[in-house]
Amino acid sequence: MFNVIGIGEILWDLLPGGKTPGGAPANFAYVANALGDRGLVLSRVGDDPLGNALARELESKNLARDFLQIDPANPTGVVKVRFENDQPRYEIVAPSAWDFLELSAGWRALAARADAVCFGSLAQRSPVSRAAILEFVGLTRGLRIFDVNLRQDFYSPEILRKSFEAAHVAKLNDEELPIVAGMFDIKKPDAVETARALRAKFDLRLISVTRGASGSLLVTDEDVSENEGLKTKVADPIGAGDAFTAALAHGLLRGRKLDKTNEFANRVGAFVASRAGAMPAFPAELAPNEHEISR
User: What residues are paired with 88 via a beta bridge?
Assistant: First the structure.
């Protein structure tokens, strides 16, 4: 069992049908936990009813609340979600408690035990949280995954550059790839070559590009894996990319072959997309037996 950490935002997604717990790092940690590792959420909520409810949600989903900070002054984060052509559109309320992460002694001690950490660009919209996240990541010796989240205007070339430099692996989607490439003056004829150039620019071990229902692309310095994805009836796509990232980390930590890792990550992402909310109950068959999956 590995210690797999999501650091950054935790919040309520306010959907047309009600609220569900979310935030990419929290979703990532939840799926890592469901896949058999020790998923841990490092975030911050307000000292308010929504924050108390999020803490209870973590416990109900078998996630420790030990590393959830309580902010006495700022409210628990919420995101107002609407759908256009079956795709979610987000209004991310600011400021929120997760804009004020603190690198506590407990977080510092945990960094030394981290086998993998996933961090994103959204939680770095605040310089306070940005400093805490990058310092925490710098203290870890395990796998560092940067999850690009281009939301509203909560990102910049400088935030992305420092995050890529801190990471071993980067994950972004096919809409984000050309935007990021343009920021760093990368001009290539297709997604594979663009991903190769981005990987090389920041000396990353792997670049992952998700393509929604059309699958995903994984690029290392030696190999390329393309997966066509799985046909599934989508309930809502929120959290599917985070589930993909958690399954990707699961395979990378175990040294699995790139194609097998890609296929499994698509299977896990498709399952989450087929359920409402980003943290559905997982069936036993999606927690793979260590002895049944060849490398």
Answer: 83
Q: Decide the pairing of beta strands 11-15 and 77-84.
A: parallel
Bridge partners for 143 per DSSP: 116
**What is the rounded CA–CA span in Å between residue 54 and residue 48?**
10
Length of the chain equals 295
Tens-digit pLDDT profile for residues 247-268: 999 999 999 999 999 999 999 9
Q: What is the largest distance, in Å, between two alpha-carbon atoms of the chain?
A: 50
Whether the CB-CB separation of 70 and 44 falls below 8 Å is answered with yes
Phi, psi torsion values for 124, nearest 5 degrees:
-95, 10
What pLDDT digit, counting tens, does each position of 159-168 carry? 999 999 999 9
C-alpha 149/C-alpha 156 separation (Å) is 11
Residue 173 makes CB contacts below 8 A (sequence gap 6+) with 148, 209, 210, 211, 212, 241
Alpha carbons 145 and 120: distance in angstroms, whole number = 8
* CA angle, 18 then 60 then 41, to 5°: 90
Is the separation of the CB atoms in 247 and 35 below 8 Å? yes
| pTM of the full structure | 0.95
Sign of the alpha-carbon dihedral angle for 220, 2, 262, 255: positive
Kindly report the backbone phi and psi dihedral angles of residue 14, in degrees, each rounded to the nearest multiple of 5, phi listed first: -95, 95
Higher pLDDT, residue 193 or 15 = 193
